[in-house]
Design brief:
Elements (H helix, E strand, L loop, with lengths): L2 H11 L2 E7 L6 H11 L5 H14 L12 H7 L7 E6 L4 E6 L6 H9 L4 E7 L6 H12 L4 E7 L8 H15 L6 E6 L23 H7 L12 E3 L2 E3 L11 E5 L4 E2 L4 E5 L4 E8 L4 E2 L2 E2 L3 E6 L10 E3 L6 E12 L10 E6 L2 E13 L19 E14 L10 E5 L6 E7 L1
Parallel strand pairs: 1-3, 1-4, 4-5, 5-6
Antiparallel strand pairs: 2-3, 7-16, 8-9, 9-15, 10-14, 11-12, 11-16, 12-13, 12-15, 17-20, 17-22, 18-19, 18-21, 19-20, 21-22
Bound molecules: guanosine-5'-triphosphate.
The site of guanosine-5'-triphosphate has 18 residues, from helix 2.
Protein name: sulfate adenylyltransferase
GO molecular function, one term: sulfate adenylyltransferase (ATP) activity
EC number: 2.7.7.4
Length: 426
């Protein structure tokens, strides 16, 4: 291998952490991401020159790191809908993908999209304001989405004189709230995104803080595998039939593995038909593989010609998903039109499209207390509630806790085609 190839393969094989950032408007998200990229030397020099120049033009005393992420808003102004921007950077120790979710009004929606594949969420609070409703909302969503690690960054410490007491107060506020949530690992870091305190390097301004910097924490937090490698699930996206002279009977099933491992010789079952067969080959775009696993995109061929079409699920006979039409969900509502009890919606689950009726709104959750709201079941924009639906066709699903891919659904308004809800199967 040439040096370039060695470098490239080292990079590809590097450990990856996906994280998302959440905070309310002006808590300093853009500044923080800019600071992380800048201090970890991930910004290219030409980008930096542009930013310095534009900061000078605006008369900023400090290079305005928020400008680094502002390309996003320009795109939004052009009418291109980008709810989440993915940014990539790496240090010698780890690769990172940041799902950067803009903090405007549609924050719940963006956070759900950005966080659904994240291993970790950074939740920012302004040291002057402490824990506010949005902090609670974001943490609750993070716990619903089964994000295992949260870093609560108490930002703008410079504006509270780097006060240890203030930091401890906020940490206590968040501890008492988060004790009611299912989040296994929470870190607390006092930072100043603007001046770089505790972002990449430990700060001299807060000698009382004994923990690690944000970057060090991001580099070292232990993430389990993103994917369920136990329950084999392959939702079929399409059936390929090239019908070439060489292979007149070829029939391949293409899609993305949603869980477990598949290899030639494995016995499989196709749902909903229940027919069984044996895997002949599994291949990726480039190669025939010895085995494939989540989240690889693959084409599978079987030894028997059985009836399988888009939206069907290939699993193993001794480990099948639940098949059903009556489903309990926690739903995050993403549309300004509230959820219609008894309303009909389109629903997307893995590669399957179906329709559903909302049979019952069981309760709405009060984001601050995490209790049920008594006497009010209207699920409006940014609300979270528990609902029961009935689908027109059976879905092949797992609980969200077990498998994020086969345990989530998207609810769509049939008339406007807008995504109105994101659901996690209980
Ligand atoms: N003093 C001080 N100001 C900060 C700090 N971090 C961010 N700011 C300022 O707070 C303001 C908001 O920062 P942004 O990074 O744009 O905030 P944001 O959360 O990304 O805001 P949106 O993009 O609107 O969601 C800017 O004027 C920043 O310069 C900090 O640590 N200390």
């Amino acid at each position: 291998m040439s040096t370039n190839e060695t470098e490239a393969s080292k990079y590809l094989n590097m450990d990856l952490l996906r994280f998302t950032t959440a905070g309310s408007v002006d808590d300093g998200k853009s500044t923080l991401i800019g600071r992380l990229l800048y201090d970890s030397k991930a910004i290219f020099d030409d980008q930096m020159e542009k930013i310095e120049e534009s900061s000078r033009k605006k008369g900023d005393e400090y290079t305005n790191l928020a400008l680094l992420t502002d390309g996003l808003s320009a795109e939004r102004e052009q009418g291109i809908t980008i709810d989440v921007a993915y940014r990539y950077f790496s240090t010698p120790n780890r690769k990172f993908i940041i799902a950067d979710t803009p903090g405007h009004v549609q924050y719940t929606r963006n956070m759900v999209t950005g966080a659904s594949t994240a291993n970790l969420a950074i939740i920012l609070v302004d040291a002057r304001n402490g824990v506010i409703e949005q902090t609670c909302r974001h943490s609750f969503i993070a716990s619903l989405l089964q994000i295992e690690h949260i870093i609560l960054c108490v930002n703008k410490m410079d504006l509270v004189d780097y006060s240890e007491e203030r930091f401890k107060e906020i940490r206590q506020q968040f501890r008492s709230f988060s004790s009611k949530l299912d989040i296994p690992d929470i870190h607390y870091i006092p930072i100043s995104a603007l001046y770089g305190d505790n972002v990449v390097d430990k700060s001299d301004n807060m000698p009382w803080y004994g923990g690690s910097s944000l970057l060090y924490t991001l580099e070292n937090v232990q993430v389990d595998s993103d994917h369920n490698h136990v329950d084999s699930r392959f939702p079929v996206q399409w059936v390929t039939r090239p019908q070439s002279e060489e292979y007149p009977d070829y029939r391949g099933y293409a899609g993305k593995v949603a869980g477990g491992v598949f290899k030639p010789g494995d016995e499989i079952i196709a749902l909903p038909s229940g027919f069984t067969s044996t895997i002949d080959t599994v291949e990726t775009y480039e190669n025939e593989e010895e085995e494939v696993f989540a989240p690889m995109s693959v084409t599978m061929t079987l030894e028997d010609d059985i009836d399988i079409s888009r939206g069907d699920m290939i699993a193993k006979p001794d480990n099948q998903p639940t098949v059903g039409q009556d489903i309990d969900l926690m739903v995050c509502w993403l549309n300004k039109e509230p959820l219609k009890p008894n309303g009909k919606y389109a629903i997307k689950h893995t590669t399957k499209d179906a329709r559903c009726i909302i049979k019952e709104v069981k309760y709405k959750v009060n984001i601050n207390t995490l209790h049920r709201v008594e006497g009010d079941k209207e699920i409006g924009l940014n609300d979270i509630g528990r609902i029961h639906i009935r689908t027109t066709e059976p879905l092949f699903y797992d609980s969200y806790k077990r498998n994020r891919a086969t345990g989530s659904v998207i609810i769509i308004d049939e008339y406007t085609n807008e995504t109105v809800g994101a659901g996690m199967i209980l």
